[in-house]
Every structure is written in C-alpha cells, then in structure tokens.
Amino acid sequence: MPRSLPAFLQSDHISSRTRSILLDRMKQEQGHRENLSQEAFDLLQIVCDDILPQEPLLGDVRLNLAVMIDHALAGSGDGWRFAELPTDLKAWEAGLASLNCYASALFSQTYADLNAGQRGTVLDKAFDGSLPHHLSAPLSPAQMTLWSGDLRNTIVATFLAHPITQEKLGISSNMTGGDTRIQGFSSDSLTRKETFEPENERRFSVPSQTGNE
C-alpha cells in the first residue's frame, strides 16, 4: 500500500535535495529484497521487530526496515567497518545465520521458533559477549558482539531516517533551510517549537517512578 506523504515535506524549510532523499527513502522502504538471501532477510524482519517494536511509536503504520537495511548493504555505507568482521553484506549474512546457530545451541530451536523472551536472551548474549562457542556459527561470540552492536544501531538509525517516523515523532532536524537560503532555527529550547515546525502526532509520557530507592 502506498504511503501518504508527510506534510512537512512540502515546507520551504526543506531543500529540494533533502526532499528528494527523503522521498527516495519512502520509495525504497516500499521495495523488495535485493541483496540478502531470502533466509537471512526473513530472519532480519523478525529481528527488527524484536529490537524495535514500532506500534508504540507509529501506531498502525509498520515500516519495512529490513528492506531499507537490505538496500543499504550494497552501498558504500558509512565508510568503515570492524577489522574483525567481513564487508557489510557478508557480515550481515553471516551474523543472521549465526543467530540461528546460537539459538539452536541455547534452546535447540531456530531463532524464528523461539518465544520473545528467548529471542531477547539470544540478542542480549550476542551483545554482551556471553554466547557459547559454536563451531558451526559463521561468526564467533566475539565477532557477534561487534556485529550485534552494528545491528542495533542500524535498525534504530534506519527507523529514525524515515520521513514517516520523523513526522510521527515531531523530528524536524531536516528543516534547516530551503533552496534559496539557510533559514535554520532561532531557539535552542527543548520545549518550544518554531512556527514552521509541525506538531508531532503522538505524545509520550514518562511513567513516574515509585517504590524504594
């Protein structure tokens, strides 16, 4: 289903170049897998939902973050990688395959067959370096620590880069100029919006802390 365009993309505080990039992200997110194997891609979709549940933030909208990540893996990326890991596409293919191996070692099931708590255990152990050694896993526990950090960072960054997320959460950091002049912001207040900034659609409250210190 085609996405509705966020209204802020029509603002004169967005340059044509920035608008084009954001529209390309929307188009890309509605695309299809191009680089990862089908097995790895299917697993990535599950992992994206495990690490970043979208419903509390976006309501009924669900972005296909796995597609955006898949497309980005064939590009130049941010220009660096851990020396202990292979290049991005190979690292993600190996990392996702390793999740299945370690899930099997810990719970005798594939990652997709685990319940939410078990999947969280696998992800947490990957991140803190406490996975058991597994000869069949493409990435060692030490490599999984590095890769799983990239995994988490990439999922969150991909989510925040999408225009629908930016509209829903009231993120207006792209609204710093236009085609003819840099307009920018006049206030550094955390609570007061500029007149050109859209109101975020969703409001979040921080639960009060109770109980003993």
From TrEMBL:
Q: What superkingdom does the record give?
A: Bacteria
Q: Which Pfam families match?
A: Gluconate_2-dh3 (PF13618)
Report the InterPro entries cross-referenced here: Gluconate_2DH_su3 (IPR027056)
Compositional bias ranges of the Polar residues kind: 171-189
Positions of the UniProt region annotated as Disordered: 171-213
- What spans are recorded as compositionally biased (Basic and acidic residues)? 190-204
Name by which UniProt lists this protein = Gluconate 2-dehydrogenase subunit 3 family protein
